Amino acid sequence: MKERKIYLFILVSLLIGVVVGSAMSTLYLKPQITVLNTEITDLNSRLDSNLGQIENSLTDLKSQSERAQSQSSAMEAGLNSEISRLKTRIDSLEDAKNRLDQISSELTDVESQITGLKSQIQNEETIIDVYKNVSPAVVFITSTELSYDFQLQREVPSQGVGSGVVVNSDGYILTNNHVVEGADTITVSFKPGEEIEAELIGTDPPTDLAVLKIDPPPNLPTAVLGDSDRVQVGMTAIAIGNPFALARTVTVGVVSSVNRTIDAETADIIFGIIQTDASINPGNSGGPLVNSRSEVIGINSAILSPVKGSVGIGFAIPINTAKKVMAQLIETGRVSRPYLGISGGSVADFPAELGLPEKGVLIVDVITGSPADKAGLRGSGTEVRVGSTTYPVGGDVITSLDGSGIKTIEDLLEQLQKKEVGTRVTFGLIRDGAEISVDVLLEERPQQ
Length: 448
Description:
By secondary structure, the chain is α+β, with helices and mostly antiparallel strands. It has helices at 2-134, 177-180, 319-332, 371-375, 409-417; strands at 138-149, 154-166, 172-176, 185-191, 194-197, 199-204, 209-213, 224-225, 236-241, 249-263, 269-276, 288-290, 295-303, 314-318, 338-339, 342-346, 361-366, 382-386, 389-393, 397-401, 404-405, 424-431, 434-441, 443-444.
């Protein structure tokens, strides 16, 4: 009972404390609450004011955004219009460029045609100039040979015609041997109806060359002799002559090849021949082959044709060869050539069974008393049969001449032609399988 009273007392005391504390708190906090309410009211007022400003700003921003969007749309439309206009302009410029490219291409074609025409005109002018410079020195040659006709009981003349070229003011004329060979009388003419008697100074059948001489008239036209060692394939080649008795005919082509070889009627080989596709026909023989500088580079001599007419293969004796021959003919009336005195053949023409070297010239015979005989060169003294053919063996094999290799008989003949009579030369030989060298003093070739 006593504990219950204590509990109640504590409870009442607590309630009284709460009531008293609440009253005290109310009395103490009321002014502060009033201040807080005032501040809250003021804060709400400011918030409302700020919210209004924010709403106004948002409205302005929205308005500005709408204006910017409108302006952007207008600008985009303008840009699209400008882009479209620029595209149209670009397309127009591309069309203009394509047209300009086409015009440029057409102009290039026109320029090419003009260049071609200029080149053609220049070529024509060159040919015209060459003809004017050289043709006055080209002569028409008539050779007359008398033969006795036993039926008619009298001499009957037969004539041949050809061409020649005046090479100096003394009246010397270069031509072909076959043009004047066997002639009893020779005349030349610079124009129809005016014939001049010509003297035969000398002939050289191995090169098919001959030299004539006339008494030089005043202002005798002469041709300039060039350098045939400088002739190259592709150079312009102009032939002037009298084909089929058609005086001073000019034909034009190119140098088709150089250093050809042709066989002379004497069985000699003519080296260094110039081949041309300039039309050369019977009657052109002896006339000049000329370059674009009006220089004589060769003497027209032969054609290769099954119909005895031009088929685009003509041959001219190089003028450097003609100069050497002409100088000797004028000085002595004949041409002096070095002489070895052997017969033989290229080892490549013999069968491998003979065991010869791969290159060189096998000496078959040595002419008694010849320079080769005097120097002790050996011919082939025995024979060997291979199959059904008998071959000479045992002779020296020539492999070099003064250090220059000799592979074929043509090499040997060409090298010998370059030597002078009285020159001592050294031959490289293979004798009995051993390499040796022998000196030979070249003598003058016997006149035929």
